[in-house]
Amino acid sequence: MMSAGQTPPSSDITSFRRYCQAMLILRHRLPASAVAEFQVREWLDRKLSGEGAIIRLAGPGAAGRVVTLSKEEESMLDCYFSHARSISLQNQAPGKSDQGRFFLGTDGAPVINLGSDLIRLREKYSAQEPGEMEAAAPTPIPAACASASGSLQGQPPASSATPPMQAGSRVRHWDAFRSAFPVTVHAEPPSRGQCAEAGFTQHRAYYLKWREAQLRLRKVYILEHAVGRRGDKPRLATVQRLLAKETWGSNRPTAEDIMKAWMPPQSASRDEEALLCSVKDQRWKGLAFKDFGEGKGLGVVATMPFQHLQVLCDYHGEVISAAEGNRRQQSGYLFFFRAEGGARLCIDATASPCACHQGMDIFGRRLNHSRSNPNARAKKVTLRYPDGPKEAVIFVALRDISVGEELLWDYGVTRQSFGGGGQRLSVAQQLMLSRGSSTST
Ligand SMILES: [Zn+2]
Questions:
Q1: How many Å lie between the centroid of ligand 1 and the Cα of residue 307?
Q2: Which domain holds residue 207?
Q3: 122, 332, 424, 429: which sits with the fewest CB atoms below 10 Å from its CB?
Q4: pLDDT tier at 130 (50, 70, 90 boundaries)?
Q5: What local confidence, expressed as pLDDT, does residue 435 receive?
Q6: What is the CATH number of the domain that holds 19?
Q7: By its UniProt entry, which SUPFAM superfamilies does this protein fall under (predicted)?
Q8: CA 317 – ligand 1 centroid, Å
Q9: Model pLDDT, residue 162
Q10: How far is the CA of 186 from the centre of ligand 1 (A)?
Q11: How far is the CA of 318 from the centre of ligand 1 (A)?
């Protein structure tokens, strides 16, 4: 993940974005309005092939247009999406929306006037005509992307003292390592031989980083079991007892380190007012739908990095009594939980669109299942509305999540029984929530 220290200057991000837009307008002859309307979802659903990628546009400015990108063009847009757009998104003011658009200004709002963007780009590179600009303009491509694609024309402009997003390739490489060897609580670190076989030459650095990530995860794992429902600081003796049960041979956190890693529950979550707003409008920053094709269908991916414990979205649906939920057992979208006062409740997310958000697809119900490598978990919360508290279930990041990663949580049972046997699901999920931890490990 890109840290604040590695963030490129916003002027570089803007130039890079303008260059990407110009490529689509000039080289692919798309109307400026169609480029402005270009959706993240269309990008995520692109079809990759050996030669590049194919994007189908559905916006009113380009309905039905198919854009065929070369490998270089695809990796350039991917670099914008993964490393530049996500920074703009993180700068977005509360209450604003990216409207699912691909190209965002540095304030995280959709770019509107692409015509003036083109003019500014021309001014910057002093080209005579738009047609010539393409050939004449040096390509302001971040170093990470240039090295990734290898054969892009042009060099970064000499005026730019700091090539933007240099960290990109390193970050990507670590992501690849992490997906080859998932960091889980009980996994063994990969051996030198396994690393070499998977094509990772920098074994040592990633090995250490892997162990570091696992150590963090293990602290969280123990804390999740040691901390009570109210989130109070656990007792050292409890932590020691839980730690003693684990058979981890090496990379063991000490009980004292685990105590230090504890955080009061409030500091971990997003500002409560913003959360209420997001729940009400069902607008969640940094998420997009992606079609994973036959068999799996729609899922949700991150379009900005999320930190461990950050709120992702809620499990939105009709809140009913558990008894009513039991009567609706044929639904695959029931979520049973125990409310603060002890009452058994159920969220039914079957209806799509829901009665309260007509015309919208809801993220929460689209999160797919993973038992072996989940990165999100469900958490029961009480939201304090002006007219009184209401129970809700939210998803939080189980670990740091990178741009482009699919959000996955452990339903507690297999997808099949999630769809077919609500009773088994409800028992497992009640267990999960009452334990205050996921069953993923
Ligand atoms: Zn709704």
A1: 26
A2: 170-265
A3: 424
A4: very low
A5: 33
A6: 1.10.443
A7: SET domain
A8: 6
A9: 38
A10: 38
A11: 8
Out of 334-338, 414-418, 426-430, give the one with best mean pLDDT: 334-338
Beta strands 334-338 and 376-385 are unpaired
Q: What ipTM does the predicted assembly reach?
A: 0.98
* pLDDT tens column, 102-112: 999 988 999 98
How far, in whole angstroms, is CA 423 from its chain's centroid? Answer: 30
Q: Do residues 49 and 73 both lie within one domain?
A: yes
* Centroid of ligand 1 to alpha carbon of 411 (angstroms): 21
In this prediction, residue 7 carries a pLDDT of 61
Provide the residue count of the chain.
441
Of 329, 310, 213, give the one whose Cα is nearest residue 269: 310
pLDDT of residue 55: 95
For 106-131, what is the mean pLDDT?
74
Does one domain contain both 431 and 288? yes
Q: Are residues 8 and 121 in the same domain?
A: yes
Handedness of CA 177, 181, 187, 189 (dihedral sign): negative
Question: Cα(79)–Cα(142) distance, rounded to whole angstroms?
Answer: 8
Query: Per the structure block, which two tokens stand in for 160?
Result: 């730019």
Residues 128 and 33 in one domain: yes
In angstroms, what is the span from residue 54 Cα to ligand 1's centroid? 33
Percent of the chain with pLDDT over 70: 78
Q: Which two tokens stand for residue 241?
A: 């007892």
Q: Report how far ligand 1's centroid is from the alpha carbon of 436 (Å).
A: 26
